[in-house]
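Predict structure. Chain length: 626.
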Amino acid sequence: MTTKAMEFLRNHTLFRGVPQHELEGAVQSMHEELFHDGDPLIVEGSYGNSCYFIMSGQVQIVSRNLIGHTVTLDVLGEGALIGEVSLFLEEKRTSGAQAIGEVTALRLEQNAFSRLAAASPMFHESLSFSARIRTMHAMLSKATIWAAIPNAELRGLAEVTVRRKVYKGDVIVAEGAMADRFYMIAEGRFEVRSGRRKKAVYKPGDYFGEMDLLSGEAHTGTVTALENGELMVMGRDEFHFVLQQYEPVRRQFHEVLRIRRPELLNEEVSAKLQFTEAEQVPEAAVETAATLEAVIPAPPKKDRWMDVLLALGGIFVAFTGLAIWLKQPVWIYAALISGGFVGPVSFVAYMRSSQLLGFKPIRLAAVFAASGIIAVPVAWVLERFWSVGSGLETTTIEHVQASLLIGVIEEIAKLLVCFFFLRGRKQRFLMDAVVFGAAAGMGFAAVESILYGFMYLQQHATSGMLAVLWVRALLSPFGHGTWTAIAAAGLWYGLGRSAKRGSTADRLLRMAALLLISILLHAAWDYPYAAGLWKMVGMVMVGGIGIALLFSLIRQGTKEERAMHRAVNPAQQVEERLRQAVGSDSKRSGSEGPGTSPPSLTCEGCGTVSPAGTRYCGRCGQALQL
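Prediction complete.
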C-alpha cells in the first residue's frame, strides 16, 4: 500500500515541490479505505480532522440548501482531494461527500496535513486558493440566484465573488449613493428602508443591488444589517458580464424586476436583459415550461379537497340520520349547519388545490366568511328594496327582468368582497381571482342554503329542509362559486393585473364579457321555467357552460403560475438534471423515502405557499427557507 500510495502522491499536482521526506512521512500516516455505494466519506456540519484523496471511483459532493433539499454540488473522480477546506479554514464542513459505487481513498489526518502545508509553500498556496473557490462555489450553489449556472462555469463565477463579513448595524448601501456592487446574502438578516418606510427584510438566499445596476441609477433604499452576517459581493462589470451569458438568470431578474419595480422595465433595461416589449417573460417562460415538461415534473401539490369532502360529507350523512331517527333539535340544527357547508367548503378546497402559488387557508376562510356576513345581507336588502323575487311577476318579461336583476345584485355584492381582497398588488395571478371568487361565491351559497333550510324548519318540515340541503350541496359546484369565480376573473382583468399588457379597451372588454357571462348564467339558473323538463335542461346547460369556462380559466391561470414559478426558480431544473445524472437512490441522495412528501414552503414576505423544492417565491421574488 505504501508504494502504491507513494506513487499516487508523487504524481499528484498538489505535491510538486513537497520534500521527499515529508511526502514519505505523509504516506506513513495515511490509511487506504474502501467505501461502498452511498457510504459517507464526509458529513456536512461536522468538524473535520482528516481529508481524502480519491484513488479510484467517484464521489458525489452534496449539501442541504436553505429549503432543506439535497443539492448536488459536484461529482469528483480519481485524483480529487476532498475535505481539505475544513482543515485549512478551520471551519465546520459546508458540504458532505458520498460514494457512488465502490470508492478507494487515502485518508490524511490533520497533523500530517498541517506538516505538508508548512513544508511546501506551493502546496499551501494551491490549497488556499482551492479552499476559497470551493467554499464560494458551495455557497453560490446552495443559496443564490446563480445556482442555475452550469457547474464548471460557476467555479469561474466563484473566482470573481468576494466574501464580506458584516456586523449588526452596518449600512451596506445608502439611499442616494451610486450602485457599483451586487450583493447576495449568505448569513444574517438585512432591512431595506426607503426614507422612513420599511420595505422588506431580506434573509439568506435573497439579493439586492441588481435593480440599481440594471437601471444605472442611485440606490433607491438603504440596506442595514439587523445582525452579524456574511455577504457575497460581485462587482458591476462582473455582474453585467455574467448576466449576459445565461438566459435563465436574465429571465429570473426580469421577472423579479417586474414584481418589485415594474416602472424600471423601460427599453434600456429590457435591452440589457435582452427582452423586448413584444417578448415578455410569461409567454417565453410558458414556452420554456412546455419544452421542459417531459424532463422536469411539475412541483407536487397536496390535493386534500377529497379528504375535506369525505370528512364533511360523512358528518352531514351522520347528522342527517340522527335528525331523522331521533328528531331532536340539536341534531336537526347540526344537519342544517353541516349541510350548508359541505358542498361550498369542498368546492373551495378543490379550487385551492388547483393553485400552485396560493395563500394560507386562513385567507380563503376570511373571504368565505366576509361574503356570507356582508354580501348576503347587502343582496337581501337590495332585493327587498326593489321587490325582486317576491313572486308577483306574471309575464315572461317580468320573470326575465327579475332573474337578471337578482343576478346583477348578488354578483355585484359578492364582487365587492372580492375587490377588497384583490385590491393589493400581491394578488397578481389570475388564479388568485378565480380562487378568491370561488370562496366569495361559496360563502354566499353556504349562508343562503342555511337560510333556505331554516325557512323549512319554521314550517316544521324537517324532511323538506334535508331535501333542500342535499340538492343544494350536490349542485353547489355549478352555482355561486363558479359564477363568482368567472366574475372575479373579469375584475382581475379590469384591475390590469395581467402580465400580458393590453390596451385599456381590451382589458375593459374582457372584464365586461366575463361579468356579463356570470350574470347571465346566474339569471338563467334562477329563471322559473314553466316545465320541470325545461328546468332540468336549463340547469344542465348553465352548469356545463359555467364549469367549462371555469376550467378554461383554471388552465390559463395554472399555466401562468407555472411559468412564473419556473422563471424565478431556474435552479430547480438544473438540480433535477443532476439528480437524474447521478441516480435517484434515496440512500445516496438523502431524499425522503416513498410515501413521504416534503413540506410546502411559506414566504415570510407575502405569505404565499409554494411547492416543496421552491427556492424563490413566484409572487414576490424573496428567498424561501424552512
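Summary: The longest strand covers residues 50-64.
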